[in-house]
């Protein structure tokens, strides 16, 4: 079922875009990693250059990735799903669609994580691989799942252009949190912010939030007319 959905949801231009995103992102990371100074200077001030690269890359990816998620998920409501729902049970089709997009997002974030480390290792002398970025990538991966659930729940084929609004709202909430650091907003929408996401219960809360969102979204779709 998942393989069948992938073939029909990601055909032609959609599949080309998915692969093109893995060309755009490495070029973008490469441009951020290049310091423009000599190898000796990179080695001498390697900690400063690495810190600058990590801060710039993480902030840039945090603003860029939501638009990739929107473009990947905005075409989820296709007409071919209706006869499938009639042939298979509705719950099976809905859960398979969610599973497909979670698999694609997992693969996408894993590729970005690998490129984030591999490109500066190859093209610079200052970069040293560390594990400090793992919590950051896991948090923005969970953010991506939340954004995916919202789009799959509220965006239909006739309204797919409005899915960009959710990416913009995600960015606005993130920028607002940089100034306010409101724990109340995190309870309502648990998006990534370093000072709050470092709390020991932040990730378990976000995962429970995602599970509840999945349950409510699937329940809403089950009661919608075909």
Q: Give start-end ranges of low-pLDDT stretches.
A: none
Shape: globular
Helical residue percent band:
over 70%
Structural class: mainly alpha
Could you say how many structural domains there are in total? 1
Q: Report how far the terminal alpha carbons are from each other.
A: 19 Å
Using DSSP, what is the number of strands? Answer: 0
| Estimated radius of gyration | 19 Å
β-strand percent reads under 5%
Number of helices in the DSSP assignment:
11
Biggest β-sheet: count, sense, barrel? none
Order of helices and strands: HHHHHHHHHHH
On the 0-100 scale, what is the average pLDDT?
Answer: 83
Q: In a few lines, what is going on in this structure?
A:
With 226 residues, this protein is mainly alpha-helical.
